[in-house]
Design goal:
2 copies of one chain form a homodimer. The first copy, chain A, is α/β, with parallel strands linked by helices. Chain A contains 17 helices and 17 strands. The mean pLDDT of chain A is 95. Chains A and B meet through helix 5, helix 8, helix 10, helix 11 and helix 14 of A and helix 5, helix 8, helix 10, helix 11 and helix 14 of B.
Chain lengths: 470, 470
Amino acid sequence: MREPAPDLTLLFNPRSIAVVGASTNVDSAGHDYVRSMREFGFGGPVYPINPKADEVSGYRAYPALEAVPGEVDLVISCIPASGVLDLIGQCRERGVRFLHLFTGRFSETGDAAAAALEREIEARAKAAGVRILGPNGMGVFHPAGGVSFRPDLPRDRGGVAMISQSGNNAVEVITRGYARGLRFGKVANYGNGMDITPGRLLAYLADDPETAVIAGYVEGVPDGRGFFDGLVSAAAKKPVVIHKAGRTGAGARSAASHTAALAGSAALWSAALRQAGAMEARSQEQLLDLVVGASLLRGAGGRRVAVVGGGGGRSVQSADACEEHGLEVVPLPATVRDQVRAKAPALADWIANPVDQSILAGSGLSSNGLLELMLASPEYDSAIANVGEDWFFGRPDAEERLRHACNRLSAIVATSQKPVAVVLGPTESAVGWQRELVDSVRDELVEKGAAVFPTVERAAFVLGRLSARA
Amino acid sequence: MREPAPDLTLLFNPRSIAVVGASTNVDSAGHDYVRSMREFGFGGPVYPINPKADEVSGYRAYPALEAVPGEVDLVISCIPASGVLDLIGQCRERGVRFLHLFTGRFSETGDAAAAALEREIEARAKAAGVRILGPNGMGVFHPAGGVSFRPDLPRDRGGVAMISQSGNNAVEVITRGYARGLRFGKVANYGNGMDITPGRLLAYLADDPETAVIAGYVEGVPDGRGFFDGLVSAAAKKPVVIHKAGRTGAGARSAASHTAALAGSAALWSAALRQAGAMEARSQEQLLDLVVGASLLRGAGGRRVAVVGGGGGRSVQSADACEEHGLEVVPLPATVRDQVRAKAPALADWIANPVDQSILAGSGLSSNGLLELMLASPEYDSAIANVGEDWFFGRPDAEERLRHACNRLSAIVATSQKPVAVVLGPTESAVGWQRELVDSVRDELVEKGAAVFPTVERAAFVLGRLSARA
C-alpha cells in the first residue's frame, strides 16, 4: 500500500524562518540564506541565530533558537555536523515542523562515524516529530513564498517544479532554464534525502496546483518502491522529466562521494522511468530541452513535422535529425505545392520538406510564408522553424532583415494551434554585433513564449520524445 | 588502380580571376565574389565581366571574357544555367584552367532538361580541357591566396581544410569554427561535384603541405571508389572528420533536391569511414567538436582521464559522460591523495576523480591545483577542466575570481604535455554581465589556444573519439 503524500505546505510556505549558523561573512552560506529571504521579499519573520552578531543582513540576530520571540516553521541549519543532534532537541522544544540541513559532511564523506551520526540524526528527528530536508542540500526555492537558497536567482515564478539531489545542478537548471523561458515554482534540493525523499517530494508535487511540469535530477534513491510510487502518481497527472545520473561505474562512485547515493542499474532505471510514464534525460542539456518542450510546446504529440529555414545543407541535416528522432518528414502535400505554384511556378516542383530557404530568394515567398502554409495543412502536426541567422549575416541590412523575420516568426508561433519549435544559434561567432544580435533576438522570441533550441537536432529530439510520450 | 591526385594549385592559387555575371547590385552573389577578392587582398588582376557596367566594387569591368587583357586562371560563373555551354567555349579559347560554377538550377531541381544540360556541360568541359568546380556551389575559400566566396569571412588562415557539398554549411563551419579557435586554410564548396569530386579534393589535400586537419561535409558521391581512395590517402596522413548527411530516407530525399546527391546507405557509409581511418560526425556540432579536438588537443589518444571542476552533481554527470564515451575515469592515485593530505587532511580520503570543486572551499586547494597534481601523475593521459562558472556567479567578486581561475587554467593548458579539454558554458543566462563575462573569458581561453567545449558531454565525446582513433 502506498504511503499518503506528506503535507509539505509549511516547508515551501513557512510563516517564519530561523537560520541557525547565520553569518555576517558575505562569502558564506550562513549569510546567503538570510539575505535570500530579504531579496525574495519573504513576508514573515526571519531569525538569524548567531551568538556573536547583533544583526545579519538587516535582520535582528538571536543568540539561540530558544531566544527567538515567535513560532518557527522552518529552521535552516548551517552549523557543523557535530551540532545537529542538539539542534534537533531545540527544534522539538520550539515545535519546529521542518528542519533543513544545509549542513553536510555525513555519509557522503565515506567516514563511518559521520555515517553513524547521520543515522542517529534520522532516528532522533523522527522521534521528535521534526521532518528533515537534506542533509547536504541547499533546500527550498519557492519564490511565491519568498524563499530562496541563493540571493541571485530569478524572482519570477511559474509552473515548473524541480527536485534535485544536487544543489549546483538545481542552480544551473533554474538560471539556464530561466534564460530559455522556464519559470520555476517549487524547487527542492534534497541532498542525501534522508527523510523527505525524492519519492515523497514527487507525491506532494503530483497534487500541487502550482505545479504544471516536474523536472527531477536523481543520483540514487534509498527507497526504490517509494520513489516509483511517487513518480507514477506525478507522471499520471503532469509531464515529468527525470535525469538519472550515476548510470556508469564511475558515475556511481562519484554519486557515493557526493550524496552517499546507491546509484543502481542504468537499464533498470530506464525501464522504470518508461514504465512510470516519465521522460528520461541523459544530461542536464536534455533535461532542460525536454522541460522547455513540455512547458512551451503545447499540443505536441503527433509525429508529422514541417521543417523550414536554413539552406540546402541544413535541410538535409534537419531531415536526418527528424527521422533519427522518430519524426516523419512528410513530403509537401499537393495543396501546399499548388499554393506555391500560384506565387512561384519555377519552385513548385522543386521545393520540398524541409524547405531550403536559399532557393526562395527573389520568389516572393519566404520561410515564414511556407511555414504558415504548412501549419495550415492537416498533413502536419508540428513544425521546426530554423531562423538561419548565418544567411542574414552575409547580406546587407542584416539586422533589419533578421529582426523582421523573427518578429513575423514569433507572431506565427504565438497564434499557431500547432507547436512550433524555433531554432536559433548556437551563438558561435567571433563578431560582436552578430553575437549581440542573436542574443537579443533570442531574448525577444523567448519573451513572447517561443521554445527556442540552439540546433535542429535538439528540437527534433524534444518533438520526438513528446510524440513518443503521447 | 588509383587515379593520380589532380593538380589543383591554380584553383586555390589563381594568378588572375574573372567573375562572369559580376553585378553592381550589392545584394547579389555577382557582387559578393568581386568584393570578396578586394577584401581578402587578392594580389592579381580581377576582371568583373558585365556588359552594362564600367566597374564593379572598384575593379574595371569588361563586356565579355574575350575582352579581358590578360590571362585568366579561374573563372567564376554567376550567370544563369542557359549561358554556361557558351561560357565553356569562351574559356577554352582563353585557355582558362578552372571554371567554378556558382550557377545552379541543374540536376538538383529534379527537372529532366536541366539534368541533361548538366551532363552536356560536363562532356563539353572535358573536351575543352576546362576543369569544373560545382555547379551549384560557392567555390573556393583560400585566404592565403586572397580568395573567398563571401566578403565577411575571417581573414586569418591556418591548417584546417574543408570540403563541403553545401555552401551554407561551409560558411557556418568556418565562422563558428573561427570563434572556437579554428583557422581555415583551403575550403572548397563543390555543390553537385560534377568534375572536381570530393574524392579528388581529398586526394589533393592529402599531400597539401598547408593542410593539417581535414573536415568534410558530404551528402552523396557519384564515384564511391574514387571517394574512398581519396579518403584513405588523406586519413593515412592527417586527421579527417567526415559528416555524412542524408543518412535517412527523408535526408536522402532532401539531398537529391539540394545537390542531386545519391545518399547511399548510412550503415555502409559508417563502415567505410571507419575502415578508411576517418572519424564520423553525425551533425555539424559533432564535426566542429571533433575538428577542434583534432586541431587543438595535441597528443590526445589515451583513455585515462582526470576530471576537475563543477560541484558534486556535475562530477557525477561528468563521470557518466566520460565512461559512456569510452574513457576511463581512473580513481585518484595514492600519490595524489598523499599530496592532498599534506594540504587538506580532512579531504584526503573523500576527494575523488572527478574532483568536486565545492568541497575544496577553504581547504587551500583549488580545482586548478588538483588539475596540476593529476596531470603530473603518470596515471592520467588527458584531462577535462570544467570552469564551473555558475558557482562563481553566486559569490562576491565573481568576475575577479573567475578571471583569475581562467588565467591560471589557460597557463596550465598552454604548458601541459597532456591534452586538456576546457569546459565553459553554455552561456545560458538571462543576466547581461554574466553572458558578457563568459563570452569574454571564453575568447581569452580560445585566444591562448585552448580547446573549449560548452559541456562536459561534448568534451568527453571528443576525447573518446580521439582515443578510439589512436
